[in-house]
Amino acid sequence: MSSHATMNTDLLREMVCENCPATGWGKRTRCQVHDQHVGNIQACPEWDKYVREQQEKEKQAKGGRTDIREREQEPALSLMQRTEDDIRDYPYMQIEVMRIQRYLQESGQAMVASYGLEAALPKGQGRHGDSTYVEALRRERKWKRLQSLQHKIERIDRALEQIGDEQERLVLEALLDGDKNNLIAREIGVSRQRYYEIKRRAVMKLAEAMERQEGDLY
């Protein structure tokens, strides 16, 4: 498996293709080496090289430490990657939240909101094979999943509120809505290269705002 498989291909196109002579350093959308539009490229030796270099930098920056308090020392690319993934998954997280809420409501989970999770669990006589016990465990798992997703969504929303530049805010909101890069670029009336500059800056600001929120927890 290629080393770039763990990294968002959109991010690789921005970080590598935008600075490659094969695209005229981002001035052309067609790669002269692959002889196709950069959006259709799925693998490239230059991508693999870039990923290896960034992974090596990350190892050096971390110095072998994995303490969560050291995350502020992560390379910017790693932070960008996590945020790009969160943005990409945002619409699906919202759909999943609605799906779980519907399931909990239909299965009688509404009582949890008033009396707490324990109120929905069977008392005393339940066995692991008992259908009521199994259903209670399923509801508990769904409830925890719902809380986790809602936390992620709220974290992104709070970070978004801290983006003061209107153009950057517009780009981020469009991405969170699931819009494609080329559509957003047309909507705000800028070139592809200019759009990626705005997007990169906006995503980094969002990432930093989200990291600050995490830092406040420790």
Walk me through what this model shows.
The protein has a two-stranded antiparallel sheet with strand order 1-2. It has a domain at 1-64. Mean pLDDT is 76; it is low at 64-73, 109-115 and 122-126. It is built from 8 helices and 2 strands, in the order αββααααααα. 62% of the residues lie in helices and 2% in strands. By secondary structure, it is an all-alpha fold. The longest helix is centred in the middle third of the chain and has 31 residues, at 76-106. A hairpin with a 4-residue loop joins strand 1 (30-31) and strand 2 (36-37). Helix 3 crosses helix 5 (131-160), helix 5 (131-160) crosses helix 8 and helix 7 packs across helix 8 (192-215).
Features:
218 residues; mainly alpha; two-stranded antiparallel sheet; 2 strands; 62% helix; 2% strand
Concise account of the structure shown:
The chain is mainly α and 218 residues long. The protein contains eight helices and two strands; from the N terminus they run αββααααααα. The protein has a two-stranded antiparallel sheet with strand order 1-2.
Q: How do the helices and strands follow one another from N- to C-terminus?
A: HEEHHHHHHH
**Strands, count:** 2
Fraction of residues in helices?
55-70%
Coarse morphology? elongated
Q: Helical region count?
A: 8
Strand order, biggest sheet? 1-2
- Low-confidence residue ranges: 64-73, 109-115, 122-126
Largest sheet: 2 strands, antiparallel
